[in-house]
Amino acid sequence: MNNKISNPKVEVPKGSNLNDKDYINDLLSCLKDMEKNLTTAKTEASNEILYGKYKDMCEDISSLQRQTYELSFRKGWYTLEEAEKEKIEQKYQMLNTELQDLNSK
Question: What angle do CA 76, 64, 33 make, to 5 degrees?
Answer without folding.
Answer: 95
